[in-house]
Amino acid sequence: MTAPTVLSHIHLGLLEPVRAAHPEVALVRIPEEGPLPDEARGKILLTQTWGAPNLAAVMERGIEWVHTFGTGVDRYPFDTLGGAVLTCSRGASAIPIAEWVMAMMLTYEKSLPAQWIEAPVERWNMATLGGLHGRTLGILGFGGIGQAIARHALGFGMKVCAYRRSDAPSPLEGVEMAGSPEALIAEADHFVVAAPATAETRHLLGVRLFAAAKPGLHLVNIARGSLVDQDALRVALEDGRVACASLDTVSPEPLPEGHWLYTHPKVRLSPHISWSGPGALEGLIEPFVENLARYRAGEPLTHVVDRGAGY
Fold this sequence. Notes:
Elements: E1 5-8, H1 16-21, E2 26-29, E3 44-47, H2 55-59, E4 65-68, E5 85-88, H3 94-109, E6 136-140, H4 144-155, E7 159-163, E8 175-177, H5 181-187, E9 190-193, H6 207-211, E10 217-221, H7 230-238, E11 242-247, E12 267-269, H8 280-297
Parallel strand pairs: 1-2, 1-3, 3-4, 4-5, 6-7, 6-9, 7-8, 9-10, 10-11, 11-12
């Protein structure tokens, strides 16, 4: 098969792994806005998870496969795809995100940074701290990220339960599968949102689900802000049903100045950075490199997005 041309909205400096594995493939950087160069034609497009302003024009250049440089595709304009296949880097950020989740749970249980001192205290060697061992972790969504979180949590001696849309058994030994989100949150001390953002999951964590939660819940969201009804969360924080919310994703992003989530004493807010870690960007390109080998060999692609399901 003749080496294909890849049109890329991604800066070519990030594509060294592609060059190393496929030196014969032509990588052509194209602008995200405005007209395209006449010679910019190819069958493969590498783009952002939200596409680009000139995406429709790019698709007219012969594109038959689109890969997004990221995981969630909830913002991708599916209506521009036509007959093209869409893939993503699903699960590529699983390790750094799992580490972030563990950090958030440990921070909560160990009451950090409140335990740091800057002057002598009344009593040394004394504190009342929590722990992860023996606690129950509920994971909503059990794809690559959810499974990575589960592996880390099992190593800390946590009881791990998960829920996903499929009724398939757990792929991980030691993880119990819950029959519903309500059953999952009712048992959880820590509850991690790791499900994709779709029309079905919008505001899944709302009044009804928070009402089913064990009082004193620690909520961690590393998925998308749209899964959480933030008005219902505020009520749950105020009445103690949720003791703390560690939110790496919110809606909208970025939050406007003065939003209540910035200053609520029970909210720990971070600017959508849980994916970050050593080699994180290189990790996002690896699924594309592997799929490019499959494409050139005429083999089925992996990490294909189900347009009907939305992920």
